[in-house]
Write a structure and sequence with these properties.
Elements: H1 3-9, H2 35-42, H3 57-70, E1 74-78, H4 81-92, E2 98-102, H5 107-116, E3 123-127, H6 132-138, E4 143-149, H7 161-170, E5 174-178, H8 183-186, E6 196-200, E7 214-218, H9 220-233, H10 239-249, H11 252-270, E8 276-280, H12 290-296, E9 303-308, H13 311-321, E10 326-327, E11 337-339, H14 351-356, E12 363-367, H15 373-384
Parallel strand pairs: 2-3, 2-4, 4-5, 5-6, 10-11
Antiparallel strand pairs: 1-7, 6-7, 8-9, 9-12, 11-12
Length: 385
């Protein structure tokens, strides 16, 4: 069964009402046949749901769909993408453990690694995605977990997942990949040796800027501790959000094809514009890791980044002249969005960390939407000109 079919046809069993579209199960708890049934369920010996804080037919359907798309054994749904990241780290790490992470991660992920985990006695080492020798030195038999984001946010840097997966396996290290930018349609980290694939479902999976959600899928031995941690700490996804996201997966492949097609055309336009100093997109021939992108990504993704000549002042002036594009910190929407990461999504990073994440005060991140590409380019052109 192909990914597009999985997103449409995998769903919960029909109820006695014979519905065609899966209903929302807006209930906090579930009823037992008798006292013995309740006892069996709480012992973990029965099938079904107990309490919507940790399981619900809607969240189960969503998890099953993403697992099928990623080729995963099991998964966990969380309240947001950052909840997915935090629960993954918190469930697996203890005082004295060591983490190796890429320098190019979402700002809040970097904050957790640099400010929260060290206060718990967890050591974090950061490596440039392109520094293969640095990864070989940093990952040792003492490393408990490795986490990367590829393509990175917002620098769109890549790392060879198969190579890094082999290195992690050699050291018996948990390998987690933030796969948010690529989605399961474009990239499947588990096939390259990753143990966990993490998504902010808020982004492309929803695709219309409506709800928050996070997903972690992978090998059951690594998702099970995350589920246990989530069950007790409560950062769970609501059944309503799960229902929305599951329905959105029905069109994910179609949407990503249009996002990527538009992004490719926009990147090609921008690289020929004299107001633009640099354009970054994995499927551009001049991307430093173009061949790697072709080998492990089905398409180039829906994000284009560029540096405008003139720094922050000119970047702000260009943004303020836009007439159609949305100015917001989200991404993965049907509507094209522009963001100035230096002063918004990554503003809490130090100046040094911004450089490592390939962010300058002239960097613009464009989440390319589903509008007609001529209209997207026309708005950007008038703002640049």
């Amino acid at each position: 069964m192909q990914d597009s079919t999985k997103g449409i046809r995998l769903q919960t069993d029909r109820t006695s009402y014979r519905e065609h579209s899966v209903p929302m199960f807006l209930t906090s708890s579930f009823v037992y046949h008798d006292a013995e049934h309740a006892e069996t369920m709480f012992r973990g010996q029965g099938e079904g749901d107990i309490y919507s804080r940790f399981s619900n037919p809607n969240t189960t359907e969503l998890i099953d769909k993403v697992c099928a798309m990623e080729g995963a054994e099991a998964g966990v749904a969380t309240a947001s993408g950052m909840a997915a990241i935090f629960n993954t780290l918190a469930a697996h790490l203890r005082a004295g453990d060591e983490v190796v992470a890429s320098n190019a991660l979402f700002g809040n992920t970097t904050y957790i690694l640099k400010n929260i985990l060290p206060s718990w006695g967890i050591k974090c080492t950061f490596v440039d995605l392109s520094d293969l020798g640095g990864w070989e030195t940093a990952i040792t038999d003492h490393t408990k977990l490795v986490i990367v984001e590829t393509p990175s946010n917002p620098g769109l840097e890549l790392i060879d997942l198969e190579w890094l997966g082999s290195l992690c396996k050699k050291h018996n290290t948990i390998f987690a990949v933030d796969n948010c930018f690529a989605t399961p349609i474009i990239q499947k980290p588990l096939t390259y040796g990753a143990d966990l694939s993490i998504h902010s479902a808020t982004k492309w999976m929803d695709g219309q800027g409506r709800v928050l959600g996070g997903i972690v899928v992978g090998r059951e031995e690594y998702t099970s501790p995350i589920f246990d941690f989530l069950r007790r700490t409560g950062a769970s996804m609501s059944p309503f959000n799960a229902w929305i996201l599951s329905k959105s997966l029905e069109t994910l492949e179609l949407r990503m094809e249009r996002h990527c097609s538009n992004a490719q055309k926009l990147a090609e336009y921008l690289q020929n514009h004299d107001r633009i100093a640099h354009v970054n997109y994995p499927y551009l021939a001049n991307h430093p890791q173009h061949d790697l992108a072709l080998s492990q990504m089905k398409m180039g993704g829906g994000i284009v980044t560029c540096d405008i000549r003139g720094g922050k002042e000119e970047s702000f002036a260009m943004i303020n002249r836009l007439q159609m594009l949305s100015i917001t910190a989200n991404l993965g929407d049907s509507r094209t969005i522009i963001t100035h990461p230096y002063t918004t999504t990554h503003s809490k990073l130090s100046a040094e960390d911004k450089v490592k994440a390939k962010i300058s005060d002239s960097t613009l991140r464009i989440s390319v939407g589903l509008e007609h590409i001529d209209d997207i380019i026309s708005d950007i052109a008038q703002a640049l000109d």
